[in-house]
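Model: Ready when you are.
Researcher: Fold this.
Model:
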Amino acid sequence: MSDIRAYESASPRIAAGGEGEFGDYVALLKPRVMSLVVFTAFVGLYVAPVSVNPVVAFASVLFIALGGGASGALNMWYDADIDAVMNRTRKRPVPAGRVSAEEALGVGLFLSGLSVLMLGLAANWFAAGFLAFTIFFYAVIYTVFLKRSTPQNIVIGGAAGAFPPMIGWACATGGLSIEPLLMFALIFFWTPPHFWALALFMKEDYHNAGVPMLTVTHGREATRRHVFGYTLVLAPFAVAIGLTSVGGPVYMAVALVLNALFIRGGWQILRRTEEQAQADGYRAEKGFFRLSLYYLALHFAALAVQATLGTW
């Protein structure tokens, strides 16, 4: 870890900051990740069995989004050193020197407090407490401890990204039940194969940054086995949602097709050797990663469609 931190002192651009534009501060919030947080939280709230005033629903999703953005800013503050040496992250506002680490920390802490307080006032304090725990889990448990210490970083840390639909459900109902728990499981077990597929063709980035991703600690062959194994674990949870009160024929049809494709993609990755992957530029791995992006979005879209059809 000390070796990683050495990058920070070696890069004066990280500490400079102070020239950021509005777009740089928006980038601190990781808007792509936030879009997933917003959508899954909205679906969790929308499919809940309790109707919510549209203004309250909008405010709840907004403050959950701000909480997600706060987590992103805190993550960028702490990870500025390793972001500076990874190709896909070195242009982020903090390592690029457009926003200082202190500013990122300030934005993250301010939005954390604001989002939790306002969600409690807009919805209920159970949901607000859940949001506070989610921010803490991502910014401290995952970013500070897990990410740099264990190849299970993505597995355990994936819980942070799986909480939003539970928070959305809690905003509507003030509690939890089997449906949001299964939504949590859907995202939780989707996260490892999604990121490990990326790591298969981005291994050098994680190696250079000293991040103990599975591809670095156990190699690509073991990672391929894990990707396929998680597609098998994931499928029953995805299908099980269709058997609950929020499921139905539309969701079930989407889940069956997507999980068949996901297992097939995992099987293709498992059967490939590293020589084959290098020969075609990791085509199967990149295809599986693209599929994983649609996989989660379409499951939650199907839940929203199913709930809409139910109201009609």
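Researcher: Now this one.
Model:
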Amino acid sequence: MSVQTSSNQTLLHTIGDAPEPISRVKGAPRHGQDPYPTRLAEPLDLPWLSRREAVVKGRAEDGPLSQAQLDAFERQGFLFEPGFISGGELAELRRELKALLAREDFRGRDFSITEPQGKEIRSLFAVHILSRLFSRLAHDERLMGRARQILGGEAYVHQSRINYKPGFEGKGFNWHSDFETWHAEDGMPAMHAVSASIVLTDNHHFNGPLMLIPGSHRVFVPCLGETPDDHHKQSLKTQEIGVPSREVLTRLIERHGIEAPTGAGGGLLMFDCNTLHGSNANMSPDPRSNVFFVYNRRDNRCVEPFAARRRRPGFLAHSPDEEWSPQA
């Protein structure tokens, strides 16, 4: 794995590195209130709130990840496994990627997101429903077993997507926590979700690889700004609401640095739902395509949104055993 960091400081940290308790700070949520308030009119007295849920809920004997791997995920909020898939399996997934992106009947649909200034596809959602091949991969025990082990219970696919960042055209993604969005706009109650991202094309330093702030999963950063109606129509192209302030990002990056896992196609990156991440624009001619499967624990199914007037469309937030269809 090739890594770039913001400084020479060590990126590992212990539980003691988490911010001080916030129970006596004015503006902190009280018992019975939403523990993760966000989309606020004015900031709280602290830049972040302590995470309440455990990061790893399962044990080494519960699944394919070793204790060392679980410990790394606990510390960093992510785990990168190069060469997770290879050979004919990877080639088949790449062919399916091209076939999906070539589907003219997908263009202009709400689940097919184009670049902010252009017609190139930026993201294609619900791919575990649109494609039998990606459906099999999403429910493959190699992924489900890892998700179950980290989450400590049975999981379902809350969201799936291909992020396709075309050469020269692919724009970046602002720093954000997925959980902040899922909590605010989808009604995900707690931090019992994990993302699995499989690199379908080679990721290198110049085609906008995913960047993560290790250790950021241990705190929740409330964001400012009311959620507009139909916010997803804008945020999936360029997210501005639900983005931490530069001051908070600076403090977290000074503390923990930045890591950018890169490497050949076929690597698997698993990251906690609350790990802050983002990416730069693709400055190279090489596309950067990843497939994402988000696993949510079944007892953590979504309720009403915590900071939006209504739920986002079904292609963005599936319910357990839901039968979503692109014809719906």
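Researcher: Key takeaway?
Model: The first strand starts at residue 49 and ends at 50.
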